[in-house]
Amino acid sequence: MTIATENPVRGRALTYQADPAAVPPVSLATQLACGYAAALRHRPVTLLRAGAAPTPASGLDLDHLRAACGPLTIGLADDGSPAARAAARAAATAQPGLSACALGDLRTVPLRPRSYDIVDCCLLLHRIEHTELVLDRLAGALRPGGLLLLRVVDRASAAGFLDRALPQRARRAGWRRRRPGEPGPYPAVYEPLTTARGITSYAARRGLVITRRGTLAGPAAGRRPARLLTARRAVAWLSRGRLTAAHDELFYALRRPEEPSARLL
DSSP of 139-160, one letter per residue? Predict the structure, then answer.
């Protein structure tokens, strides 16, 4: 498999040769991270994983990332909830190269500014409060030119509405069916930033460059039982289009400009 992407370090095309025997195909987040990391072969790559929950299949594949960049140093940060702490313990065992783990109030946990090449914020923002302040800290932890990967359940989706509206007992039962053995369910907070408009506005205000954006639904967002699909379609219909059943999640890749004067493209 060949992945071609823009070189965010020197602004030229870069090709990363992935293992052709690798299955399943790597996710877009993995492609972008590998392309970026391959440009940094002159030094070890630092990665911050914001969100300790096990990453679904369409998230960041660390084996591919190591193949692209060589030495990889990983930091982990999450809130201090019981589910996050249980997930962090599992992640610490499963992720070789983990150098630091910070759990607690994400507005204050120790994150060194300008110290990470890649920040992978996967399925975190919709389950925490003070998302803008937390995202400020994650973006601030990036080196100039660094890559921020965001994956979040969309507040404006039928899936996001059901996650907020269902009783906790129903949420627990659904979580056990879909993710047996995994810690959860996490809180359903969904602040206004967890929408396409919210992320785009945030990027513009902070001078971050949006390089890719997209939505995830169906297999890319995990298996969805038929009963759940029916419920989401019903919510979308009752909302008269205000909530969508076409996708569940949003994906954004943002880059921190190397020059303070750079603007959103």
Answer: HHTEEEEEEEEEEEE-TTBHHH
pLDDT for 183 beyond 60: yes
Q: How many CA atoms lie within 13 A of 223 on its CB side?
A: 8
Q: Is the pLDDT of residue 1 over 60?
A: no
- Measured CA to CA, the distance from residue 68 to residue 138 in angstroms comes to 23
CA distances from 180 to 19, 59, 120, 174, 218 (A): 31, 19, 24, 10, 19
Please give the helix or strand (H or E) that residue 103 lies within, else none: strand 98-103
Q: Report phi then psi at 74, rounded to 5.
A: -120, 130
Backbone phi, then psi, for 172, in 5-degree steps? -65, -40
Domains of the chain (ranges; CATH) run 2-154+193-223+248-255 (3.40.50.150)
Q: Dihedral (C-alpha) 91, 92, 96, 98: value to the nearest 10 degrees?
A: 110
Taking residue 27's Cβ as centre, other Cβ atoms within 10 Å add up to: 22
Whether pTM > 0.70 for this model: the answer is yes
